[in-house]
Amino acid sequence: MPAAAPLPLTLGELRTSERFSEARLKNRSVKDEMRANLMARLKARETVFPGIVGFDDTVIPQIVNAILSKQNFILLGLRGQAKSRILRALTALLDENLPCIAGCEIRDSPYQPICKRCRELVRQRGDATPIAYLDRAERYVEKLATPDVTVADLIGDLDPIKAARGGEDLSSELTMHYGLLPRANRGIFAINELPDLAGKIQVALFNIMQEGDVQIKGYPVRLELDVALVFSANPEDYTARGKIVTPLKDRIGSEIRTHYPETLEEGMAITAQEAWAQRGQAMIEVPKYVREIVEQVAFSAREDKKVDKRSGVSQRLPIATMELVISNAERRALLNGESLVVPRVSDIHAAAPGISGKLELEYEGEMRGADTVVEELIRTAVGKIYDCYFEGVETDKIEMWFNLGGQVKLDDSQPAQAALAELKQIQGLVERLAPAGVKPADAAPTLVAAAEFLLEGLVAHRKLSRNEERGFAAAERPGRKEEHKSVEMDYEEWQQQSRRSRRGYN
Fold first, then answer.
1. What is the mean pLDDT of residues 159-181?
2. pTM (2 decimals)?
3. Are residues 382 and 417 both part of a single domain?
4. CA spacing 20 to 30 A to 155: which of 25, 216, 453, 481?
5. Does the pLDDT of residue 482 top 50, yes or no?
């Protein structure tokens, strides 16, 4: 490919450039630029926001409409719904390079400078005025709204030190210290958690949103800024009962609701994209059922009455949990000198501290305790995914082995070969693993992970029990008067006795 032409470095060179000509840039606003680039992507059928999963038919079309309408917009959603990620992805709709006057704090246009310093520079130097360039990332400015944010932070203030050093009057435009909003000129300015701004600060945004200008400290300094304003907020706060000023709410063009993944597959795709899974030191194979269980924990938590719905269950929960699950499996492999890392269901239990830290509990959940709630969520998730693989699979022989007094204790630090030797004692276990995509000839870590999944599924359905002391064992059956003494008992005889003493599980 031929080398790209060098960028013009002076105003004179810029005027003669076809790419940055005055006719092309002079009256082109940021919103015009975003609209034109978006239209080009749509015509080419390119992905508008790469990496954003699950919003193709819901959120993204609404954002596209807002941009095509040249509107400011707000994303309303609970935590962990990719609001900030979407706002930052808007920079992909900006030009790769944008010329500005070199050294300008507010990135002034070479053709239409709005600050006094740049107007005087162009008047003095003319075509020799130096030009600098902004890339896409530099044109995005983000502020997290907090109650202590001041008008000076956002808009600007007088700078007595600058006035003293320059010998200027305090009323001079050259003594102004510009805030974040003027410094976002010719770019995108994002405010996260908008309702957390104090009321008077929200009022300060009115001019820029309606008239497109800001005034600093009461002096007649009027800056006609070119900014695309975007916001994010929690729906609970963005109401008449919340902390949003109604006139500001009225000036925002579109209110776009985000949401959590609607299907397990969408959630898994997000987690696979975001979680740090491939670590380079060892071969890591995460079984599909482990990924599904981790994701199902989040889905179950969003439905659980013991978890606060207003706070939400962030998509960061399965991402962080998956990383912890892999780390626990990695730790086991390192301790035992194993080259293949295969996470097990027990590794999900080991990741419980990472799950509890992502949940806000209701009163009932607080009374039961976070650890208990998390264990229940994991058990529920295991049960649902188990049904997807083993529903209809005959497990009577496995249950019989435990009911005849068999026990297996698996440690999450136990070597795969030792764990497999324990599991092979269970009659018919290895032969029942095919639905999980496992064959008897597979590697020990793979077999152990699948076998533990099946046993954990039986525990979830209360056909077996599991505790720290005994490991996997027969389900406790209240009222049972005698135990079977021999694991060699005939299968038919066991079935007959089971029918006579059938009862509920713990």
1. 73
2. 0.85
3. yes
4. 25
5. no
308's tokens: 């606060």
Per-residue pLDDT of 8-24, as tens digits, reads 999 999 999 888 888 88
Number of domains in the chain: 2
pLDDT exceeds cutoff 60 at 331:
yes
- The verdict on residue 156 lying in a domain is yes
Is 50 exceeded by the pLDDT of residue 491?
no
When pLDDT is cut at 50, 70 and 90, the band that residue 264 belongs to is very high
For residue 163, what pLDDT is reported? Answer: 67
The rounded distance, in Å, linking the Cα atoms of 449 and 293 is 13
The C-alpha atoms of residue 27 and residue 83 are separated, in whole angstroms, by: 31
Of 207, 230, 257, which residue is a domain's last?
257
pLDDT digits (tens, 9 = 90+) for 46-57: 999 999 999 999
Q: Is the dihedral of CA 121, 126, 132, 134 positive or negative?
A: positive
Q: What is d(CA 407, CA 401) in angstroms, rounded to the nearest whole number?
A: 9
d(CA 214, CA 207) in angstroms, rounded, equals 6
* Mean pLDDT for the chain overall: 87
* Cα–Cα distance measured from residue 293 to residue 322, given in angstroms and rounded to the nearest whole number: 10
Residues 491 and 419 in one domain: yes
In a domain, 6, yes or no: no
Which residue do the tokens 């003293």 mark? Answer: 164
Which burial class, exposed, middle or buried, applies to 110 when counting CB atoms under 10 A from its CB (0-12, 13-18, 19+)? buried
User: Are residues 202 and 286 both part of a single domain?
Assistant: no
Indicate whether 426 and 484 sit together in one domain: yes
Give dist(CA 179, CA 157) in Å, integer. 7
Three-class secondary structure assignment of 218-276: CCCCEEECCEEEEEEECCCCCCCCCCCCHHHHHHCCEEEECCCCCCHHHHHHHHHHHCC
Q: Is 117 within the bounds of a domain?
A: no
Task: Identify the burial level of 359 via C-beta atoms within 10 angstroms of its C-beta, where 0-12 means exposed, 13-18 middle and 19 or more buried.
Answer: buried
**Shared domain check, 365 and 429:** yes
User: Is the domain of 356 the same as that of 487?
Assistant: yes
Report the alpha-carbon distance of residue 341 to residue 119 in Å, rounded: 64
Q: Where are the beta strands (DSSP E) in 69-186?
A: 73-76, 97-101, 131-135, 140-144, 156-158, 176-178
380 and 302 in a single domain? The answer is: yes
Q: Quick one: DSSP state of residue 4? A: P
**Residue 215: domain span:** 30-69+71-94+136-257
